[in-house]
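User: Design a sequence. Structure:
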């Protein structure tokens, strides 16, 4: 189906040589243009991306929000779809987007699509990672907040539509990658919160571990996803704990730095008290006897 409007797909990535091809293949020949910003890959990611588009730039890494704004500035389509290298646009989603953008009555300027999160070979059906994600929007007037992580889109006169067709998400290569990614995101978000003036303590971090697990496992029905649902509930609880424990640690480290930079106070030496001898009271009329001393050797020498 041909669309009456143009569509740009933008991807930001680094060291994704094992996943970037599948991502770009899912939109190649469908999107009007594909834009890739690679923040210094050392594994050939940019070389692979050039098989699918000639619009590939090598950049530094300023953070998620600023990097997405860089990519957005290079897009020329009426609509923009943002992807990560671990995401795949399914055939159902392509068809759903084409239908929406071809409908004269479609007046939304932002489209959310649900994630089909693949967790160790099987899709999760419940929990946080099945929530619809902001991935498609009108380019005019849109920009991302300059956040280091969990960047949000700012768009004027926001009108949201939600599609049913899923965006496939292969977020984690293995368990080690799963944990490393969540710890990294927790640390970035803690630093962002600290710069905004927020503070925490270990009691609150522990409280969030418990509440986030209960919310995910019971209220968001991860319990229905079996072992994978239990695992993800624990991981998200850990993520909450790491985030607020890291926030607490930043405050502690700042206090230690400040105390180390203040020189110790100079305490003046205590003055020694003069010893005062107190003699016993003398009887009335008492006259001290005169004691004649022999001249000292020093006096004799001077006399000589």
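Assistant: Done.
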């Amino acid at each position: 189906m041909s669309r009456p409007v143009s569509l740009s797909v933008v991807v930001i990535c680094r060291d994704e040589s094992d996943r970037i091809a599948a991502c770009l293949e899912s939109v190649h020949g469908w999107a009007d243009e594909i834009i890739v910003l690679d923040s210094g890959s050392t594994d050939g990611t940019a070389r692979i991306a050039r098989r699918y588009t000639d619009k590939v730039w090598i950049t530094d890494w300023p953070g998620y929000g600023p990097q997405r704004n860089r990519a957005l500035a290079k897009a020329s389509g009426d609509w923009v779809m943002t992807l990560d290298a671990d995401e795949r646009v399914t055939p159902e989603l392509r068809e759903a987007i084409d239908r929406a953008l071809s409908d004269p009555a479609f007046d939304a300027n932002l489209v959310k699509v649900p994630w089909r999160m693949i967790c160790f070979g099987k899709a999760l059906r419940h929990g946080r990672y099945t929530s619809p994600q902001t991935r498609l929007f009108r380019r005019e007037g849109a920009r991302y907040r300059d956040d280091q992580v969990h960047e949000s889109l700012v768009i004027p006169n926001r009108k949201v539509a939600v599609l049913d067709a899923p965006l496939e998400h292969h977020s984690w290569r293995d368990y080690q990658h799963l944990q490393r990614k969540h710890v990294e995101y927790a640390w970035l978000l803690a630093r962002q919160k600290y710069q905004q003036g927020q503070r925490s303590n270990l009691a609150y971090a522990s409280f969030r571990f418990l509440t986030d697990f209960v919310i995910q496992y019971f209220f968001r029905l991860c319990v229905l996803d079996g072992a994978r649902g239990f695992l993800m509930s624990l991981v998200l609880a850990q993520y909450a704990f790491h985030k607020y424990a890291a926030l607490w640690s930043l405050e502690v480290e700042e206090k230690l730095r400040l105390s180390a930079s203040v020189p110790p106070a100079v305490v003046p030496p205590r003055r020694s008290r003069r010893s005062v001898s107190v003699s016993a009271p003398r009887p009335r009329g008492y006259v001290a006897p005169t004691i004649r001393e022999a001249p000292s050797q020093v006096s004799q020498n001077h006399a000589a």
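Residues 275-279, 290-304 have pLDDT under 50 and may be disordered. The CA atoms of residues 253 and 259 lie 10 Å apart.
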